[in-house]
């Protein structure tokens, strides 16, 4: 089409653009409204569901975890506030609030032994020991959720993944990549030697020693000079199950 | 779980690094705390009063994990108990350590209880009788270390609860209670 010259042509083009935009906005609004409607239906159904399965949600950790997943998909966070419908209905806010406090307790109590880094599995075990009286079972998923809420406090609680394991960190130390790799390596036997680190990770001797000394200073490692071969072993209580035993005595 | 006599051994006893004195202060403090408790518990259940640093004290090694405490670690753990007032070095070279799982004051109370329960309030006994006689059998006084017993008796003597005197026929000392 031949381009129309002059001011009239420009005005026409601008008007057309406005029209298109209006139309687009209308379509978008319609879609959003529809979506909102669907969501609110879903939400009310979710509430019905929660009401119906209240006891399952409270007592069955697997069920609870799935329920949380469903909630997340529709933008409902039952943990967001202690007030309101969800908390009243399920008392779920209190549950995680209490769990969070217990997690802080356990982390503090075991810190002298593990340097503030604890296996998620261990943490769960210790929590169940503590909560023997309570009827609800605590799963790893519950712990992760409770820790997620603790993060808001800025207290430096964080879950890190090392190898196949999840570790909960309650000290502000940032673990560097080197340290993570050593922790991962130590999971096989519970300890490593300088030589092993050098060989398995192809590091220079200085790099291995530096990283191990840092882990030692942070209280995350313990040395063992007692083996027959005379080589110093660095043990990591946070990857061994012994931490639960030592800790349970002090709890 | 492993057992030593009647004592259930704590799990840290099977974790090798606990047998090496830790270089980092905080870790070492925790380590020392655990060992202190273990040594005192063990001595209490086994009625052990003297620990020789160069002797085969069962807690100083764990054959199951092939670890044993070196001299430095032994001295460190026992010194910590000494500074808590629950033990005393018996020589300058720190080779032998007297373990007071009951403090002398507590021992004195135990003796008084023993005297009252057996109606010995105005009686005379020899020190040896107290340690190995029929009356004390089944009480904490039975088999008490002589040094500890004498110290507790002296404390009671100072409080006027008894008088210690030298026997005429034997070498043994006698005790006249006046509770």
TrEMBL record, chain A:
Cellular component, GO, one term: ESCRT II complex
Pfam family for this entry, one: EAP30
Keywords: Protein transport, Transport
Gene Ontology terms describing biological process: protein transport to vacuole involved in ubiquitin-dependent protein catabolic process via the multivesicular body sorting pathway
SUPFAM superfamilies: Winged helix' DNA-binding domain
Subunit relationships: Component of the endosomal sorting complex required for transport II (ESCRT-II).
Function: Component of the endosomal sorting complex required for transport II (ESCRT-II), which is required for multivesicular body (MVB) formation and sorting of endosomal cargo proteins into MVBs.
Family the UniProt entry places it in: Belongs to the SNF8 family.
Name this polypeptide is given: Vacuolar protein sorting-associated protein
Automatic annotation (TrEMBL), chain B:
Domain of life: Eukaryota
Keyword list, A-Z: Protein transport, Transport
The keyword Heme is annotated on this UniProt entry: no
Gene Ontology MF terms: protein homodimerization activity; structural molecule activity
InterPro entries named in the record: ESCRT-II_cplx_Vps25-sub, ESCRT-II_cplx_Vps25-sub_N, WH-like_DNA-bd_sf, WH_DNA-bd_sf
Keyword Nucleotidyltransferase: no
Any Pfam family the entry gives: ESCRT-II
GO CC terms in record: ESCRT II complex
Any one biological process term the GO annotation gives: macroautophagy
Similarity comment: Belongs to the VPS25 family.
Protein name per Swiss-Prot or TrEMBL: ESCRT-II complex subunit VPS25
């Amino acid at each position: 089409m031949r381009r129309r010259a002059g001011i009239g042509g420009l005005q026409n083009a601008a008007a057309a653009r406005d029209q298109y935009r209006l139309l687009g906005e209308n379509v978008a609004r319609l879609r959003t409204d529809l979506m909102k409607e669907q969501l609110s239906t879903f939400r009310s159904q979710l509430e019905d569901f929660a009401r119906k399965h209240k006891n399952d949600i409270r007592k069955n950790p697997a069920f609870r975890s799935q329920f949380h997943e469903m909630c997340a998909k529709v933008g409902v966070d039952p943990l967001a506030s202690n007030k309101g419908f969800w908390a009243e209905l399920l008392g779920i806010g209190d549950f995680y609030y209490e769990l969070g406090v217990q997690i802080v307790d356990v982390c503090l109590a075991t810190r002298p032994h593990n340097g503030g880094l604890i296996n998620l599995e261990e943490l769960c075990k210790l929590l169940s020991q503590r909560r023997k009286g309570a009827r609800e079972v605590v799963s790893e998923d519950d712990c992760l959720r409770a820790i997620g809420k603790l993060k808001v406090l800025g207290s430096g609680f964080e879950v890190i993944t090392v190898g196949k394991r999840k570790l909960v960190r309650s000290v502000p130390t940032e673990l560097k990549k080197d340290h993570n790799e050593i922790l991962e390596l130590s999971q096989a036997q519970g300890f490593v030697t300088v030589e092993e680190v050098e060989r398995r990770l192809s590091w220079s001797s200085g790099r291995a020693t530096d990283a191990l000394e840092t882990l030692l200073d942070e209280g995350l490692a313990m040395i063992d000079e007692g083996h027959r071969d005379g080589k110093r072993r660095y043990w990591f209580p946070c990857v061994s199950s012994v931490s639960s035993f030592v800790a349970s005595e002090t709890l | 779980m492993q057992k030593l006599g009647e004592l259930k051994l704590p799990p840290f006893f099977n974790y090798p690094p606990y047998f090496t004195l830790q270089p980092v202060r905080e870790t070492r403090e925790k380590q020392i705390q655990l060992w202190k408790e273990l040594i005192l518990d063990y001595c209490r259940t086994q009625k052990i009063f003297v620990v020789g640093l160069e002797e085969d004290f069962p807690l100083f090694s764990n054959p199951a994990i092939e670890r044993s405490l070196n001299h430095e670690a032994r001295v460190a753990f026992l010194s910590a108990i000494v500074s808590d007032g629950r033990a005393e070095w018996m020589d300058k070279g720190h080779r032998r350590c007297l373990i007071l799982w009951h403090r002398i004051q507590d021992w004195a109370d135990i003796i008084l209880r023993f005297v009252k329960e057996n109606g010995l309030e105005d009686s005379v006994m020899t020190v040896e009788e107290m340690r190995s006689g029929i009356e004390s059998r089944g009480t904490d006084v039975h088999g008490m270390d002589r040094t500890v017993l004498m110290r507790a008796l002296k404390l009671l003597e100072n409080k006027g609860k008894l008088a210690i005197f030298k026997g005429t026929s034997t070498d043994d000392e006698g005790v006249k209670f006046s509770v």
